[in-house]
Amino acid sequence: MKLIMFLLVHMLFALNCLGAGLADLQDLAVANRQVVDKYRENVAKSGQDQIVARSPYYPSVDLSYTANLLDDDTITENSENNVIYGVVRWNVFSGWHDRYGLRAAQWLAEAEVGKLSAIKQDIRLKVALRYLAITSARANLRVARDSYENLAKVLGNGKNRFEVGLIRKNDLLKFQVDLDNANITLKKAEAEVDRCWRLLVREVGEDINRDQLFFDELAILPSVADLEDLEKQLKANRSELKILEKQAAAAEEQIIVEKASQYPKIDVTGSYRRYEDNLFVGLGDTSQEEFRNQLVVSFNLFDGYARKAKVAKAGMQVRTLRQDLAELQDDLITELHNLYQDHQVAVINVTAAESGISQAEENLRITKLAYDEGLETEVDLLNAIANLSRSRYNLAAAKSAVFDSYFRIVRTTEGQ
Asked: Is the separation of the CB atoms in 251 and 314 below 8 Å?
């Protein structure tokens, strides 16, 4: 099944290679990452634990062969003899130990399924953030490139103006210094894009062709539900909360398991015993056979207070898990409130940043015209270019913050 899922994910990714998106990368990462395999193995082990917990419901069958060699014959036993012994045992009642032990194993198995779901959600979030980081880095690269090109044009124009004596050498050097600084920023932005790609490849677990990704999901700003609805989703969906709930339920079953020893234990057995006066089966001169059926009722009167301590310990474990559950839920709700606020602020900042770009572009246009007419200085022109670059950086950062908070909200609530 795992191999089939792996192949299906790769086939879907290949079919969408001309426009692979975030969901494709997330599915690919879940299929590729070995940490997911680790949690799948834990789920499989919990299934084996359930089989072990169910085993007392079945009878046990034992068969033994014993060869005895003594110095001399005794009244009851020859010096050479063998005994074949077979017994079937079946526990009829053990104080509901088996029933609640099985239920505890089932709860723990469901907890392991929750852990698997949680690690998948974590991987999807990491892929989404790496995916977003690439778009942010590419946006910053475009801003850095535009800034560099604007300064290059200004420097070229400044050289012409210097040659005809309209500006001083010192003013031309200011243009060159700013252009050199813009070139450094551009190189850093190019390196950051490459770094983000490598981190995405690591999260996905497979090499990615850059031409396959168009980042269409990030073209429109996402919206989120009301905070009250998000809280309901969190409480209903969050895997970590479900894990603690299942573990607490298993611990409650364990209390009854520990109490089971205070009840009588009833076993039914049927046995067969064959004795021969020879070391080897079938070679003896005489033999004896015995069939025996038994009903055994046993009752523990005192165990050194072990049962009492085990029951108390199981009760403490339940309370500890319930306390952890309450603390985690409060932490997650607080985190959700903060993320929701961050998202709302980021959306507002996008609107403000878009307005700031329009104003910065108009300011640069007017400043260029005034500079050409000799009404503005070189410092004013450089400031106008810097303001436009800063506004574009702000817009890229604001959009990135919107998606960042959105992806984290999705992870916190385990929504779609």
From this structure: yes
Copy the structure tokens of residue 225.
């539900």
Domain residue limits at 160: 2-32+94-264+299-413
Residue 295's Cα: distance from chain center in Å? 52
pLDDT at 110 over 90: yes
Given a cut of 90, whether residue 372 has pLDDT beyond it is: no
Q: Report the C-alpha gap between 329 and 321 in whole angstroms.
A: 12
Distance, in Å, from the CA atom of 108 to the CA atom of 44, rounded to the nearest integer, reads 12
Mean pLDDT, the chain, rounded, equals: 89
pLDDT in tens, 64-90: 999 999 888 888 888 899 999 999 999
Residue 341 lies in a domain: yes
Number of structural domains, the chain?
1
Q: For residue 79, what are its two tokens?
A: 């010096």
Distance CA(360)–CA(325), nearest Å, equals: 51
CA 10 to chain centre: 21
Neighbouring CB atoms inside 10 A of 293's CB total 9
- Enter the tokens of residue 132: 């977003």
At 244, which CATH number? 1.20.1600.10
The stretches of 205-305 forming alpha helices (DSSP H) are 227-237, 239-259
Q: Which two tokens stand for residue 96?
A: 């509901």
- Report which secondary-structure segment, H or E, holds 81: strand 80-93
